[in-house]
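**User:**
Make up any protein.

**Assistant:**
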Amino acid sequence: MQSTLQLIDVAKLFKIHGDVLSVEPYGDGHINTTYLVLTSEHRYIMQQMNTTIFPNTAKLMRNIELVTEFLRKQHKETLEIIPTKQDSSYCVVDDKPYRMYAFIENTISYNLSPNKEVFQEAGEAFGEFQNDLALFDASLLTETIADFHNTPKRFNDFKKAVEEDVCGRVKDHKREIDFYLEREAQYSKIVDGLRDGSIPLRVTHNDTKLNNILIDAQTHKARAIIDLDTVMPGSMLYDFGDSIRFGASTALEDEPNIDIVHFSTELFEAFAVGFVSKVYASITDTELELLPLGSKMMTMECGMRFLADYLQGNVYFATKYPEHNLVRARTQIRLVEEMEQYVQQTSDIIAGLREQFMTKDPGASQLPHGGA
């Protein structure tokens, strides 16, 4: 890890205003290392990018440049890349790439939904994000992580981790492993739909956690979607599903007390209302029907990734203690179990939204969407 003095020197490579006063760790992201840069005039976010996860820094940053420029032309608030003094979107110091963003002031974010109103606002924000990028040419984007939400591929990686058992942990976690093995037949439905065209290919965020929305501290309205590293072609079901996985839980993703981890149908409905209210003119009947499946699929996929990483010795996700990924995997298992219990209820919620939104606009499902 770089020293504070070294980080200050890195910050000075960018076109920032004022003298650098401090560089401190910031946030709790799993992948990149994030710092808050304080100068005598402004605040900035600086990140050391993870080249193990994102090996092609140039193409990743080009994706972000294209998407933020497109959003800005629509008068949307979005990330502002601070260029280097050499007019590049990033710099490399000691073989480590760094980028900088302007700090978006007077905003807050949540790791846990404080109430259903905030989560409905999140649904509206990610729904608008879908609409804002509906006409963006997805062929311009590079796939920053190959097969990111390819659930069958993730399952094969999981099985490989079980078979190799490099840390000798498999014998102690048969219940968790069997949970994912027993559901193998479900994992290909979205991928198959994208392949045969029954599910549209769209420009998607692919990491729609609640804490990737910046909320105005005064109005409590969403202002900007952040963490654009995984913006690439995908399914709307991925974005909806990952939001539910993260935000419709009554506890944090790494809550060790499994007894307080529950899937909230009230929060599911709040997000769905917000999301569908923004995308009803472009969402297809198939996508609408499969929204609950998207929620379950993203929760299963993330859980098996956490468990595979634990079995491999915690080589992918940042962890704070040895069992951290195991704890995360168990919260996802609990959520899936309850999603399966409430499948009729969530299906009824979506049916109600179809009646509320899809029947009031004869042009529904006719708007274009991004495609590769």
Remarks:
- Residues 194 and 200 are 6 Å apart (CA to CA).
- The chain has twelve helices and ten strands.
- The radius of gyration is 21 Å.
- The first helix runs from residue 4 to 11.
